[in-house]
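Problem: given the chain below (264 residues), write out its structure.
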Amino acid sequence: MKKTSHFNLRFHLVLFIAFILLSSFVIYEHTKPVLYIIGDSTVKNGDGTGKDTLWGWGSLIQPYFDTTKIDIQNHAIGGRSTKTFITDKRWDKILNDLKKGDFVLIQFGHNDASPLDDTARARGTMKGISDDSVAIYNPIRKMNEVVHTYGWYLRKFVNETKQKGGIPIICSLVPRNNWENGKINRSNDYRVWAMQIAEETGAYYIDLNSNIADRYDALGESAVNKFFPKDHTHTNKEGALLNTEVVIEAIRNNKYKGLRKYLL
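Solution.
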């Protein structure tokens, strides 16, 4: 009887210790901050595994972070604008899980320049950062809707992130492979609007457009052409890695409310 009692005591003690350890792990995983990344195909191309030789920079960023201390979630998806990322309910899913201390890295712009109500995608937004809006019939969603400016949607991402206690970081859109007089073309609209919204809302800002363009200029047109095997927008893995390094360099040189401390 004594042996049985001692065995039962040890057995229940082992179960109790296992329960405590498992509970501690679950609590840790729940409280560990998350870096959410949202954007278009220049951030995550396809399923993010490099099919068709194309990559987005967000798919290559995880190895730069200590993932025992921060979780990296790349929610970017090809073909989306600031508007359609919201109307697809993708932003709602992130907001449901977003908690105090999480980070949201935001990069849109390429698809926002598309038409507002064409029969192909109807994904565009109004130009600028004002509160202007226009009522349209969306032939894709088959419904009436109100379309706002690019800046209005960026402002929404930032404000709703802050309301949940998160830290928003706006990135200007990566440059396309368009050259003029030996220099890559910089964006004089979406880059500027992204910067203006960051300044207005107090969000952090990474000028990917200018910083990557500077790297391209230094490499030269013939070298940069090798990054773009299909078109002037989407990069191969080597090009995406360069873009990722520019993002990491910006994080490493700035605190961004503590994001830097999670870098390896």
